[in-house]
Amino acid sequence: MATDYEVPAIRRAHQILETLATKGTPVSAADLGLATGLPKSTLYLLLESLVQRRWIEKRSDGYLIGIGLYTLGASYLRHDALQEAFRHAAVEFVEREKEVLQLAVLDGDEVVYIAREDAPRPVRLVSELGSRLPAHACALGKALLAQLPEAKLQQLLPARLPAITEHTVTDLAQLLEQLREVRRSGVATEQEEVTAGLCCFAAYVGQTPSGKSIAVSTSIPVARLDAQRRSDIRGEIADVAAQMKKAIVG
User: Fold this and answer.
1) Does residue 55 carry a pLDDT above 60?
2) Burial label, 175 (beta-carbon count in 10 A; 0-12, 13-18, 19+)
3) DSSP string spanning 202-214?
4) Which of 199, 200, 204 is nearest to 184 (CA)?
5) Domain IclR-ED spans what residues (predicted)?
6) Where in the chain is the domain with CATH 3.30.450.40?
7) pLDDT per residue over 145-192, tens digit each?
8) Rounded distance, CA 114 to CA 77, Å?
């Protein structure tokens, strides 16, 4: 039977970890107390427990996410042979196309980037590992959302979607039409909906044995694209998805 009960100590530890995860520099205990609202005695007890497990690390000026937590999180990619399958497909794609390749999983109405293989030439990206984007705005999200029934999409997404740039699709009806096209073609695209000057192409890989819905994408500056290049990349990203599906899903 489902229950809304949660263990307070786990919730409090999660508050601390979430706060540290949003910061790029050490966070003092005082600032953690302000951010979490935890009593000082509770906060210090949790901090010490987390340090002992190496989930966080103590510095002279505060606390950081620790190597122990990274090690645990990295196991997510080892499930379903994701890491090996992505690396094999990514190396071939990047060597051939000289463009970045990214892997993401759907989490509610967001995508979470879980792997990336960079190209020799740098591209301005927001896809740091572990980062999230609204699924409706990015090609990866569109590829993943297209796998859901429209009734589910209408429950999941608001009628008015938040904009990231002036090009982001914010009307649900327009997004649903785009997703129908993704189902027909097998490839999702977006241009400057997340980042100015970038066009992204994505394809759905499938659902892994452990239930992850994953997709792959590439992001390319608009200036490097013409009609032929767009067509070639669409075919290439579909091939990468098929290669990964064969390796992971079977």
Assistant:
1) yes
2) buried
3) EEEEEE-TT--EE
4) 204
5) 68-250
6) 74-248
7) 999 999 999 999 999 999 999 999 999 999 999 999 999 999 999 999
8) 7
Look up the pTM and report it: 0.81
Taking 3-state DSSP, the helix, strand and coil percentages for the chain, each rounded to the nearest 5, stand at: 50, 20, 30
Per DSSP, 58 falls in state: E
C-alpha–C-alpha distance, residues 197 and 144, integer Å: 23
Q: What is the DSSP letter of 80?
A: G
CATH code assigned to 74-248? 3.30.450.40
CA-to-CA separations, 212 to 162, 208, 229, in angstroms, rounded:
25, 5, 31
Residues of the chain with CATH 1.10.10.10: 8-65
Residue 106 · residue 142 · CB < 8 Å: no
Instruction: Give dist(CA 129, CA 140) in Å, integer.
Output: 14
Q: Residue 248 corresponds to which amino acid? A: I
Which CATH number applies to 8-65?
1.10.10.10
In tens, the pLDDT along 194-240 reads 999 999 999 999 988 888 899 999 999 999 999 999 999 999 999 99
The residue among 11, 106, 83, 32 whose CA lies nearest residue 244 is: 83
Q: pLDDT by residue (tens digit) across 94-130?
A: 999 999 999 999 999 999 999 899 887 766 666 677 8
Q: Maximum Cα–Cα distance for the chain, whole Å? A: 63
Token couple for 143: 């590829």
Burial class (CB in 10 A: 0-12, 13-18, 19+), 48: exposed
